[in-house]
Design brief:
Blueprint (H helix, E strand, L loop, with lengths): L1 H6 L1 H22 L5 H21 L3 H5 L2 H17 L4
Helix pairs in contact: 2-3, 3-5
Length: 87
């Protein structure tokens, strides 16, 4: 799905809607911070970038990394995007 979204707006639209409006935006809204839509967009860009590099571009380092390590590296950044009141 991610590979198709890179090549086609028709494929990108449902992926964008799902990631932004179904997954990330509700998390940002539940944090009770300002600009949840902006925060969701920034977090989604990080998530999609990780997915693109890990699965489509197939970066050797990121692709071979255990999922738990990927989470430990990126979770603090995503948490900051979604919940830091100073952002």
């Amino acid at each position: 799905m991610l590979r198709g979204a890179v090549a086609s707006e028709d494929a990108a639209r449902p992926l964008r809607e799902f990631v932004l409006h179904t997954v990330v935006e509700p998390i940002a809204r539940s944090a009770g911070v300002r600009d949840p839509e902006k925060r969701a967009a920034v977090a989604a860009s990080q998530i999609l970038g990780i997915g693109l590099l890990r699965y489509v571009v197939a970066d050797a380092a990121l692709g071979k990394m255990p999922s738990e390590e990927v989470v430990s590296i990126f979770a603090p950044t995503l948490q900051r995007y979604l919940a830091d009141p100073h952002l």
